[in-house]
Amino acid sequence: MLAIARHLRKASTMAEKQSILGRVAQLAKANINALLDRAEDPEKMLDQLVRDYTNNIAEAERAIAETIGNLRLAEKDYEEDRSQAEQWGSKAAAASRRADEYRAQGDAANADKFDSLAKEALRRQLDHERQAKDAEPMLASQRQLVDQLKSGLDKMKAKLNELKTKRSQLVSRQKLAEAQNKVHDAMGSINIMDPTSELNRFEERVRREEARALGRAELESDSLESQFAELELNGDDAEVEARLAALKNKN
Questions:
Q1: pTM, 2 dp
Q2: Rounded to an integer, what distance in angstroms lies between the CA atom of residue 59 and that of residue 69?
Q3: For residue 216, what is the DSSP state?
């Protein structure tokens, strides 16, 4: 009955572990960059992946802990079989020695009795040795499976850290991109409603007014100079008339 229970436990454990191993390997090998490229909303997809990985890691940890526990029970059964085989071997040797002693004393009945006990002990020894031998390849397989599950779990945890890092980087980049786009939008609206263009037009108006004022001032200046020149000419004529009058008086 004990042997049957062991085999049933080991069979169900192996099937369950193979299923867990397949899932762990699939998640550990997931290409995050490829998933991001196909995602419509990378941030939401990463949040979902983080949740999925966290849940799967917790489930895998529970399953792997159970797997290790079953492996330790199987190893204990194996050691118990080896110990029992050794004990039955010792009992067989002791019964055989006692049979030899009785046979030396001429007591054939007790000699045969203890030889029979020795044979029964040897049968039990063989049975435990056989169970231990049968368990060895399965134990090796389970140990290998546990190592694979642990390695896969480590990869899943590393992948989870990668996911969290990528999510943080992505959110930071998205916020930076949004801020940059707002700045570009603001710059675009400034270019469309450029206040300096109004200043330029106003400055041009001022310059035209200044030019007009300069022109008028120059025209006024030219008019004054001509008047003064005319006055100077008139003054010369008067002087000439005066001097002519003086000459005539002398005559």
A1: 0.53
A2: 15
A3: H
